[in-house]
Amino acid sequence: MPQRPTSRDVARLAGVSRTTVSLVLNNVPDVHISPETRQRVQEAARQLNYYPDAIARRLVSGRTRTIALVWHRGPDRTYRDAFLPGLLQGITRAARHYGYYVLFRPIEPDEPDDSYVELARGRHTDGLILSGPRSDASHLLQLYEDGFPITLHGQLPGTDIPSVDVDNVRGAAEAVNYLLTLGHRRIGMITNAPLEYTASRQRLDGYRQALEQAGLPYDESLVRYGNFDEESGQVAADDLLAQDERPTALFIASDMVAMGALRAIRLRGLQVPDDLCVVGFDDITAARFIVPALTTVRVPTFGLGWTAAELLIRIIEHDPPQQTKILLDTELVIRETCGAP
Predict the structure, then answer these.
(1) DSSP assignment, residue 222?
(2) Do the beta carbons of residue 166 and residue 326 sit within 8 Å?
(3) What is the pTM of this model?
(4) Distance (Å, whole) CA 338 – CA 341
(5) pLDDT tens for residues 112-164?
(6) In what order do the strands lie in the sheet with 325-328?
(7) Is the peptide bond before 29 cis (omega within 30 degrees of 0)?
(8) Does domain 7-61 bear CATH number 1.10.260.40?
(9) DSSP assignment letter at 292
C-alpha cells in the first residue's frame, strides 16, 4: 500500500521548507510569501495529492475552518422540516466556496437554550449561525458580547448582532392585502411558531398592519398559534373553523403549518377555495404540488443560507461588510387556494 504523501514530500518537490508549505496550505494570514512560491507549493501539493492534516491545520491557523448552524428544532421536526434543505444547501455551498466546513446542531425541545454555547467555548467552531432566535436568548447575547462571531438567520430587535432574514412584516402584510383585494373581511391567522420566536411575532405584526390599514379591527379570536409542524396547523385551523361565524380566509405563516390546516378544512367537508381561501408562507417544494396548489409567500431559502454563511465568514476573517443587517425580498406566489369569495 503506497504511503500517504507528507509535507516533507511537498517541500522537497517545491524546493521550500516545511514551514513554508504549512503556511501556504493553511492560508495563514500576514505572512510574506511571494506569489511564485505559493503557486509552486500549491502545484506540488496537487501533483502529490497531498492534503494538510485537519488537526495540524487547526494548530497552525488557530481556526477550525468550521462554522455551525444551530437550529431551534428537535429531531422529529428537524428532519421533516421542508424549509431546512434549501437553507442548509445555501450555507454549505457558501462555506465550501470559502474553504469552510459546516457543523449542524439541532437543539432538542428539552435542552437548555444555552446548550450550543459549548460549541463556541470549546473552540469546536469558528462561528455560529443561529436560526430562529428567541427573544429570551440571554446566553446568545453574552456570547456575542464576548466577541465570538455570530450571525442570525432571523432577527433579534434591540441588538446589533449581524443578521440575515426576509422582511417578515412586509411579506405577511402583502399576503393579507391580497386576501383583502379579493373581498375577504373576516381573515383568520395561524402563526408559524410561538411568539417567543421573532419571525412569528413579525408575521403577526404584518397581519395586524394590513387589517389596520384597511380600517378593520384586530380580532384576537381570529388568531391561533402554530408550532412549526402540520399537527399544530390542523388543531389551530379546526379550532378557528368551529366558531359560529368562521373566517372566510386564512393567512397561515408557514407552509408546513398550512398543510395541517388544509387537512382540517377537508375533514370539515369544506372546499378550498370555494368555501375558504388559504395563503401560506415560505413556498416549500410541496406547496406547488398539493391539490389545490398553495398560494404562498416565497422565501429565498438558498439565498438566506448563502448570505448568512458569507456574512459570518467575513466576520471571522475580519472583513465584515458595512451592512450587517440584511433583508432579502419575498414574493407573493398566487396559485389555486385563493379565489373571490
Answers:
(1) G
(2) no
(3) 0.77
(4) 9
(5) 666 677 777 777 889 999 988 777 777 788 888 888 999 999 888 888 999 99
(6) 101-106, 66-71, 127-131, 150-153, 163-166, 325-328
(7) no
(8) yes
(9) S
* Burial class of 280 by CB neighbour count within 10 A (0 to 12, 13 to 18, 19+): buried
Give the Cα separation of 284 and 135 in Å (integer). 26
Question: Which spans in the chain are helix H?
Answer: 7-14, 18-25, 35-48, 54-61, 75-78, 84-97, 117-121, 138-145, 168-181, 198-213, 230-241, 255-267, 301-316
Cα dihedral value 183, 186, 192, 198, nearest 10: 90
SS (H, E, C) 229-274: CHHHHHHHHHHHHCCCCCCCEEEECCHHHHHHHHHHHHHCCCCCCC
Q: Quick one: DSSP state of residue 228?
A: S
d(CA 121, CA 161): 18
* CATH number 3.40.50.2300 given to 168-299: yes
Cα–chain center distance at 15: 46
pLDDT digits (tens, 9 = 90+) for 194-211: 998 899 999 999 999 999
Phi first, then psi, for residue 71 (nearest 5°) are: -120, 120
**Residue closest to 252 by CA, chosen among 304, 183, 197, 175:** 175
- Dihedral, 329, 208, 81, 122 alpha carbons, nearest 10: 80
The three-point CA angle 170-174-178 to 5° equals: 170
Kindly calculate the radius of gyration of the chain based on its CA atoms and give it in whole angstroms: 25
Domain ranges across the chain: 7-61, 66-166+301-327, 168-299
The CATH H-level superfamily of 66-166+301-327 is Response regulator (3.40.50.2300)
CA angle 224, 258, 207 (to 5 degrees): 50
Contact 91, 306 (CB under 8 A): yes
